[in-house]
Amino acid sequence: MASRCGAFRPYSLRARTTLGIAALALVFLTAIGAGINFLVFNRVQAQIFDEAERVAVNWGGSLRPGGTPQPAPKGDIDLLQLVDSRGRVVAASPAAAGRPALSTVRPPADDRIQDFTECSGRDECVMLAAFRVFQPETSGTRPDEPLFVYAGVTQPPILTGYRLQLLTAAGVLLGVALTAWVNWRLAGKHLRPVGVIREHLSDITVSDLSLRVPQPSGCGEHALLVHTINQTLARLEEAVKLQRRFAATTSHELKTPLTGLRTQLEEAMLYPHDVDPRETIREALSATGRLEAIVDDLLVLARLRSGTPVAHEPIDLGALVAQEAAARTGGVPVHVHAGRDVHVRGNRIQLIRVLNNLLANARRHARTVIEVTAEHVDGQAVVTVTDDGDGIAPQDRERVFERFVRLDDGRRREPGGSGLGLAISRDIAHAHQGTLLIEDTPRGARFALRLPLHREAAVRADPPPDPGDTGDPRDSGAPRDAGRRLGHAERI
Questions:
Q1: What gap in Å lies between CA 218 and CA 220, rounded to an integer?
Q2: Which residue among 3, 41, 186, 302 is least crowded, i.e. fewest CB within 10 A of its CB?
Q3: Which neighbouring-strand residues pair with 317?
Q4: In this structure, how many other beta carbons lie within 10 angstroms of the beta carbon of residue 117?
Q5: What is the average per-residue pLDDT within 226-246?
Q6: Is the pTM here over 0.85, yes or no?
Q7: Are 105 and 238 members of one domain?
Q8: pLDDT grade, residue 489 (50/70/90)?
Q9: Is residue 260 assigned to a domain?
């Protein structure tokens, strides 16, 4: 993708931000330019009219009976004329001499001064101030005849045509171009680390996930992004390692029974008279059963690891423990001590599988008895399964929960096991926001399953003390031994 894309990509973040900011700059600068244009036009026009009014009033005020003073232009106001009521020019400045009356506008008596712009047929416009003068008698005029003083200047080029608007538009376009260029450079500078991250990520493949993106200094967005990417790569690398190890172990575990099955069948085909067909079929069925158990457990593990949602319901865990323990008849006896109000929310089938796996594991290693308890402790439902066997060494207490890991004693006691039962049990516990651990015990091994209590059960888990309760198990009708065992379980 990078090889086919140039520096300017219309849909890139850099291009989109530049175009967006340029559009905003165009809107704002256009509004500002229009405001400046309006202010400049009004300012220049107001200055000209103010000066023209001052000159007209000064000249009109200098008129005296019997003579007309010569106008003296001041500043930019060079067009001065004194016009009578019949439109005759009585006096004029050098710039207005020889010209007809500058305007035919006659200010009324109640509004003696007026400002306006007069345009002639020669496309020439003048800005004028007209002042009405009452002069008793001047040279060439009648005593009762009003006079009009016109003072002005040719309209300056900045107010003529569209020159001011064009200059403003040019300034707006220049400002937009400058803003877009600055944003393009800044965006490129800030997005350059993203390109570096992309280049490093393109070098990371499934065959080598050990590479990492160099971590920038500071706590900016790029540094946080790189930190998250490296964490994701680390998790991905660990997951790939686990998958590869799982695939290798699975192939080994499946290859052993398949090889034995193939050997038995080939032997039956090659030596039909020396092999008992019934014995061969029986052994083949045994190997097939082991293969089926391994495949089923692998499917359960895959569903648990994929996070596939399953239906949860309120479950009386104490009753479920008693029910599953009672279903196992024969062999080592199982003593169950299940408390009341041990309710959880979970999947019944999965929790039954955990209990069966723990009971089966305890039965393989127990010598005389298996102790099972179910109670609520500190807002959690706790199920313990304890056997009186040889126990599990501390260094092996986590290994037994790995897939296909079976200790030597377990292989000797049950050669056909899949080695996935405890791994599945722990995954089910985690899927229920719980834990499954091996705890210390004076003898044998104790597996402790801890699950969150159901919300309603948690409220009932710690009822107010009964004033008539002496704390003696005999008062509640429970066996004394059961009270001691439950008390021991709470101290674990």
A1: 6
A2: 3
A3: none
A4: 15
A5: 81
A6: no
A7: no
A8: very low
A9: yes
